[in-house]
Amino acid sequence: MANLHASIPMETRRLSPALIFFRDQRKWVPYLFVAPFFITFAIFTLYPIIRAIVMGFQESVGYSNQWEWIGLKNYVEALTNDRQFAIAAKNFVLYSLGSLLSQIPAGLMLAWMLTSPSLRFKGFFRALFFIPSVLPGVTVGVIGAWFFNETRGLANELYLLFGGAARIKFTLYPEYILPMLLTIAFWQWMGNHAIFFIAGMSGIDNDVIEASIVDGASPWQRFRFIVLPLILPVIAYVSIVITAGSLTVYDVPIIFLGGGGVVGGGGAGGQGWFFLPWMMRMAFDQMRMGYASAMGWLVFVVAIAVTAVQLKLFNFGEAK
Amino acid sequence: MQTQTSTMPVSKIYHPLRFRRSTIATIILTSLAIILAVLFIWPFLSVLAWTLNDVDASMNSLIPIPGRFTLHVYQLMLSRYRFQDYLLNSLWTSIAITILSTFASALAGFALAKYQFPGRNILFTIVLAVMLLPLGTMLVPSFIVMRDLGLVNNYWGLILPTVGGGAFNIFLMRQFMLGIPTELMEAARIDGANEFRIFSHIVAPNTKAAMGVVATLVLRGAWNNLLWPQIIISDNAKQLIMPAIARVNELGVADPYARIVTPAAAIVAAIIPLLLYSYTQRYFVSTLTGALKS
């Protein structure tokens, strides 16, 4: 670089700095190349986020663009006096815990199975178990609704096959909503996680395994002390994705709880609300844009906090 | 170099928990995998069979074979519910989004990978931070901004926010572009090529695979999107496929056909992501995990 500058003739050096800047394409072209992202980011992401801070303290007058200041009312209402928001918060906690505890162990076991030297047709199985995660959320919701359908669903057929007395209309029971959604999420994501775990395992050194076999380590010990530490970053990534995803579930519950004529959008007993469906209901059904923005901010902050805590937890685990 | 280890075929890797390779183990494990796989696709097959079943014919969900085969449901889907319109709307907006977004993220990824310029590290940090932001929670204020800009019920409202490329795609592109030899660019510069020519003649041809992966991801994301088009497009005739399915699904009891047309449409809507996946399957997993590891 130094040589390059030395070779610039004296006349050029006397030119104005701006002209020199524009003469050398390498100086301004990178800014031009990143401009589309940062311009659209500023208009369509950053500005709405800042706008949301203001809107959280306001309420729109109907569908119009007139806003009145109402102070902290939105936040107070969301945190103390909104049954559906509380249900959504509870559902987020249970849904993310349920997903973590079911999908990560199952994903690990599937990854183990799909990397075993004894398994034939590995490529085929890997491709197959990955498929549900590329399907549209809408399709997954429809398949889930069909699975738990009273007259046509597989769940009921299996229930009858294994000695059930009569068909159950699962969607009528508030206590079944989360288990059903967790089953659907399990089907949708398990294969996806397994593929990530397989990629994490691929970095493991053969010699280490050989040595451990010679030393008489059991398969469990090999898993616990060799494989697990190596794929811990992948587990961290997957669990962050699961938790963040649980905060913004939308497609599957909207389809799953939206059909079948259960009135209210929140499923049986209104127990099926999640953050996004409830925010959308408030914003576009009740025209309470300010209130929805305030809820959006609360969830936004929770999401960042949860991600930060998880990053910290897993870093701590690695340091040990 | 991280990315290279992960693209290595996984089948060649020594299995960490390996037990003695024997025929019995192979038979047991493979049959277990087959059973799991069958359980995995059965719900899908069951739904598919119901959509091909005559409405009056009986059928057992456990056996996914239509009692009396008919395409009547799919005909209804097109004639009565006009799903071909929604599919077309989705198709052209998704393709527009894919082209613009892939191009923009390639340019930005190139700049962040291959140029030294003041502020580069800050800009890259912003891209990384944006990847972690839970932007799904900010859709209501985004809608307000779109309304103020007059982009509601307008396809530009779907397309414009994506023309910047997206943080994750830029990150993926950057990881790929790091691998392009700088000497190649220098040689081109000495031959008198300007920076745009370097992008179009050296960088773009060398990163076709990366662009393919990003394009696949963008296309799938745009096609599968339910919430944003639901918010932005209010005119029914202009609607995209996913919100249209959600609307027909909600007709529920009031409309006797809606119940069976919904799964048919949901299956048709899944064809595009499935095709994309089957074409790019190999790339896909190794690319994603490569980026993840680095």
Structure description:
The complex is a heterodimer of chains A (320) and B (294). Chain A has helices at 2-6, 10-14, 17-23, 25-55, 73-80, 83-115, 122-130, 137-147, 154-161, 174-201, 206-214, 219-247, 251-258, 275-284, 289-319; strands at residues 58-60, 67-69. Chain A is mainly alpha-helical and 320 residues long. Chain A has 2 domains: 2-45, no CATH class; 82-319, MetI-like (MetI-like fold, Orthogonal Bundle). A two-stranded antiparallel ribbon of chain A has the order 1-2. The longest helix of chain A is centred in the N-terminal third of the chain and has 33 residues, at 83-115. The mean pLDDT of chain A is 85. With 294 residues, chain B is mainly alpha-helical. Chain B folds into 2 domains: 2-70, no CATH class; 77-293, MetI-like (MetI-like fold, Orthogonal Bundle). Helices cover 69% and strands 0% of the residues of chain B. Chain B contains 14 helices and no strands. Chain B has helices at 2-7, 23-51, 72-79, 83-114, 120-132, 139-148, 156-159, 167-177, 182-190, 195-206, 208-224, 227-232, 241-251, 258-293. In chain B, helix 13 packs across helix 14. The termini of chain B are close together. The model of chain B is unreliable at 1-12 (pLDDT under 50). At the A-B interface, helix 4, helix 6, helix 7, helix 8 and helix 9 of A face helix 2, helix 4, helix 5, helix 6 and helix 10 of B.
Overall pLDDT confidence of chain B: 85
**CATH fold-level assignment of the largest domain in chain A:** MetI-like fold
Helix content of chain A: over 70%
Shape of chain B: globular
Write down the CATH topology of the largest domain in chain B: MetI-like fold
Discrete helix count of chain A? 15
